[in-house]
Amino acid sequence: MSTALLIKGLKKTYANQLEALKGIDLCVNHGDFYALLGSNGAGKTTVIGIICGLLNKTSGSIKVLGFNQSSHVNQVKKLIGLMPQEFNFNPFEPIEEILINQAGYYGIAKSKAKIQAELLLKEVDLWEKRFDMAKSLSGGMKRRLMLARALIHQPKILILDEPTAGVDVKIRHSIWRFLSKLNRQGMTIILTTHYLGEAELLCRNVAILNEGKVIKQSSMKALLSQVDQQVLILESLSQLPQTITSDRFKCERLDDHSLQVVLNSDISITSVLHNLDTQGVIVDYVHSAQNRLETLFLYLTNKEK
């Protein structure tokens, strides 16, 4: 598989001698959905800034789709779309014009930009508001506008910094669906988020930063497999029996329609459902009562201190 982003030995020391990055290595494959996680101050924003050419590195190398970032600055910028966390568009500009003007920075003709702007605004459900000033949009609409702007020049790599911060559940899910669609179409996506459930749901691979260093880099599946126990909530539309027994897993009746089960890593959910079925319990819904990625994140970052 070809490499979309390759970072080797990346270091950044600011003028006040703050060592933000201490020689990090990252490899993101083409078409990946990649989580870059870390606490505040871990170095995520610095990494993004350097990748996008907004900050100068102290040392190290970055290649974007085979292009050396230092010697192919303009080519690299065209390959990357950035959705920053902070709103940084002109609030007194109509939203369609925001996209068209952004396209102009990449040398895209206005006629072509208008076509692309229409496609994107319809995709993020903002077409009916295309003539509205950006300041009139709700927080969720502004997030979707930022996403559309990041995509206006049709980049190969999309970098998202807290893309669903402050939005309601409905908008969050609509953004997730759109991002998953883009990824299925072949776009490489790099996500930074403090909402770890978002990363667990969307991303196939993950790197965790702590104090300027990469402390873990693996597939999401391999990382989550390190959790010794899983806590699930099982729900039944039928009323549950008063007593439910099991020798292989812990089971607690929460109410007339809900159970909480705790599974060790060697117990499958299939065996649990079979056990409950023999006791007359029909499970209609299953969902996690814990965020496994959050559990591992806290363990790994605390271990480094």
How many angstroms separate the termini? 35 Å
Rg result: 23 Å
Report strand %: 25-35%
Q: Write down the overall mean pLDDT.
A: 91
Q: According to CATH, what is the class of the largest domain? A: Alpha Beta
Query: How are helices and strands ordered from N to C?
Result: EEEHEEHEHHHEHEHEEHEEEHEH
Give the number of DSSP strands.
Answer: 14
Tell me the structural class: alpha/beta
What would your notes on this structure say?
The protein has 305 residues and is of the alpha/beta class. The protein has 2 domains: 222 residues, Rossmann fold (3-Layer(aba) Sandwich); 64 residues, 2-Layer Sandwich (Alpha-Beta Plaits). It has 10 helices and 14 strands. Strands 6-7-8-3-9-10 form a 6-stranded mixed beta sheet, sandwiched between helices. A 4-stranded antiparallel beta sheet has the order 2-1-4-5, covered by helices on one side. Strand 1 and strand 2 form a beta hairpin. It starts with a strand and ends with a helix. GO terms for molecular function: ATP binding; ATP hydrolysis activity. InterPro entries: AAA+_ATPase, ABC_transporter-like_ATP-bd, ABC_transporter-like_CS, ABC_transporter_ATP-binding, P-loop_NTPase. This is ABC transporter ATP-binding protein.
List keywords for this structure.
single chain; alpha/beta; ATP hydrolysis activity; 10 helices; 14 strands; four-stranded antiparallel beta sheet; 2 domains; six-stranded mixed beta sheet; Rossmann fold; nucleotide-binding; 305 residues; Alpha-Beta Plaits; AAA+_ATPase; ABC_transporter-like_ATP-bd
